[in-house]
TrEMBL record:
This is Saposin B-type domain-containing protein. It comes from Acrobeloides nanus. SUPFAM superfamilies: Saposin. InterPro entries: Saposin-like, SaposinB_dom. Residues 58-141 form the Saposin B-type domain. The lineage of its organism: Eukaryota, Metazoa, Ecdysozoa, Nematoda, Chromadorea.
């Protein structure tokens, strides 16, 4: 999703409405409908900030974890043969696309915290929320 924002934002001719439409369409590519709905809410609630290139406010560790672990789940769902090392590299690259450097650093710290646990959780079919709970970054509901 972040890559989609960066790609479309580089095209000066795109309107805010066009950007929103394209991002909402990208949300539809997520494997889990709950993730699709969360993505759509994020797009709809932040489109003006994104379009005007205002950084989204710094997130707490739980929010950052949920964002990056959503990517992890999607990458793993698309290719469950991906190696632990390749997946970790992809996620660290995704961290670099966060709008705020503090969020980038937090993201990298989360990805590097205990990635073998993350990878085993993915192999076990756990969702992004459960993974973040296992990393003690979110309180289980």
């Amino acid at each position: 999703m972040i890559n989609a924002v960066n790609y479309y934002a580089q095209n000066n001719a795109i309107t805010q409405s066009d950007l929103q439409t394209k991002l909402l369409s990208a949300c539809g590519t997520f494997a889990v409908s709950q993730d699709q709905n969360s993505c759509k809410n994020i797009v709809n609630n932040n489109i003006a900030k994104v379009y005007n290139n205002n950084p989204i406010p710094v997130q707490n560790a739980c929010q950052t974890c949920q964002l990056i672990m959503t990517n992890a789940v999607n990458y793993y769902t698309q290719n469950n043969a991906i190696t632990q090392s390749d997946l970790q590299t992809k996620l660290l690259s995704d961290c670099g696309t966060f709008a705020v450097s503090q969020d980038q650093n937090s993201c990298k710290s989360i990805v590097n915290k205990d990635f073998s646990k993350v990878y085993n959780d993915l192999k076990g079919g756990r969702n992004y929320g459960q993974i973040c709970d296992d990393l003690n970054l979110c309180i289980a509901a």
